[in-house]
Amino acid sequence: MAVFDFLLAYDFLLIALLAGLAVAAVAGPLGSLVVWQRMAYFGDSLAHSALLGIALGLWLSIDGGVTTTLTCLLVALLLTVLEDHQKLATDTVLGIFSHTFLALGLLAITLMPGGRTNMEALLFGDILTVTTAEVITMWGLSLAVLVVLKLQWSAIVAMTVHQDLASVEGISVGRHKLLLKLMLALTVAISMKIVGVLLITALLIIPAAAARQFSKTPEQMALGASLLAAASVCLGLAGSLFWDVPVGPTIVLSASVLFLVVRVTSRPYI
Amino acid sequence: MSDFYEWIRVSFQALAQEGTIPQAFEYGFVINALLCALLIGPLLGGVGTMVVAKRMAFFSQSIGNAAMTGVAIGVLLGESYTEPYISMFCFCILFALLLNYTKGRTQLSSDTLIGVFLSVSLAVGASLLLFVSAKVNTHILEAVLFGSVLTVSNTDMNVLLVVTLVILAVGTPLFNKMLLASLNPSLARARKVPVELMEYIFVLMITLLTVACLKIVGAVLVEALLLIPAAAARNVISSLRGFVILSMIFSTISCIAGVLIPMQFDLPLPSGGAIIMVAASFFIITTIIRATFPAYKEARN
Question: Is the ipTM beyond the 0.85 threshold?
Fold first, then answer.
């Protein structure tokens, strides 16, 4: 019971934990999809565009969460359109956009009139300042993404395994890809506060890559990744509590340690 | 070497006082930054063409992130926080070699593997760097991430100069072989080009470059300067020679403009961000040119 007393005494920790778990729940399945579909770079571009969203929120003085979500969704659409119409390699295009967004967001925030913003919190997350309202929004969005994923899961997995076969079976590949990208955008928007712009992709990829090691089915991998992400959130919070280090990097570092442990201890099925 | 730099600075300052060139050149650091930009520009532009051709964008980004860890380790080991080159070079080279070695020997797809390496190095780097910056100097973080021209020292210029010479000496004679090895490995093997070795040499070149450019462009944005000018050049030119030259020109102009514009207009921008924005505008312009003039569309393929 000591744990609960502790959590109640430090209610900001409880809120932080809840926020972290909301992100972990959705990071598992979406991270697995990112790994399967090799969308790591796409996730990175989205994450960097979140910085632009924050800058926009500051300029227009509206809530940063709203502008971040909208910007991420818009960028996901933009990238989808551009990917189809560009002749350069996809990773080049995404690399260009990801860095342009980062530079643009950076400049917009630096040029903000009226004082400097805390860059560190934007880049590496600031889980301890999450408010109760934000936690509720996070869980709402996270559950919404999970429900949509659950409903479309078999179609998305079929598309991942074999695109042509899936489209022959009547699954509209283009629509599901777009759906996946929009869900990724939402995930990025809610993860922003937890791990920051630079580390979102890490939180998506590392648990999924670790879970891949011991999973036999796609569902196992998605669930395993969620559990590993949740464990990383807990470890990260505990670590930052005891050693007074920033939370975001510590969460990702815990995920890396778990990845190493899993890789060393378990024999791969694949 | 420092006498030589001093001589350049003094002569520029004399010119600035006469009014031949803009006032900004009265400051030593502006000239330092400009000299670095002149070295970095063509170098990144040239090597960038290979990065785009080999699709190694993600790879070079992870090296940039590794440099962050390198800086943090250096500061922890007691190197000066403005020039922790020894640990940066050591760590990044080890990291790059390890990554390239693991790439062919794992069942993870190379995209995921690089993603994991990238994320881990970023997380470790960020943790250590935030930890160090709280103790030593809170401005390290932004300077390392996004570059800071104001603090370029003679040592930085020496390192950059040596790296430039090494890359020119190694890269120029091997350029054709490397290109062949990356475009068509089987043909390259048939011609007795050591493909594996070329790969390692190229990876080491990128690593050296990334570390040397860290001061000006920043860890997160170095890779953008490898990619964007090359991609912009590729938009409008079809021959290989033109591709390399145009990429160099774009990248040099971006570096110089990115260094000078914030100083001219007195904006508190990090140099890396400004440089990338100039480069990005080149990319946008060339994309528009390609879209409006069908002749270029034909030429590309």
Answer: no
Round to whole Å and give the CA distance between B145 and A249: 15
- CA-to-CA dists, residue A232 to A223, A227, B80, B119, B277, angstroms: 14, 9, 33, 14, 36
Residue numbers of the domain that contains A170: 2-265
Nearest to B58 among A91, A93, A259 (CB): A91
The whole-model pTM stands at: 0.81
The answer to whether position A71 is within a domain reads: yes
Segment of B55-64, B213-222, B223-232 carrying the highest mean pLDDT: B223-232
Q: What is the pLDDT of residue B301?
A: 42
Task: Select from A40, A111, A249 the Cβ nearest to the Cβ of B267.
Answer: A111
* Assigned token pair, A154: 């078999």
Whether A96 and B224 lie within 8 Å, measured CB to CB: yes
* Low-confidence stretches of chain A (pLDDT beneath 70): 1-9, 85-89, 113-117, 267-270
Q: What is the CATH number of the domain that holds A26?
A: 1.10.3470.10
Residues in B closer than 8 angstroms to A83, CB to CB, are none
Mean pLDDT value across residues B152-159: 84
Contact of A26 with chain B, judged by CB distance below 8 Å, is answered with no
Count of domains forming chain A: 1
Quote the CA–CA distance of A156 and A160 in Å, as a whole number.
6
CB contact under 8 A, A103 and B141: no
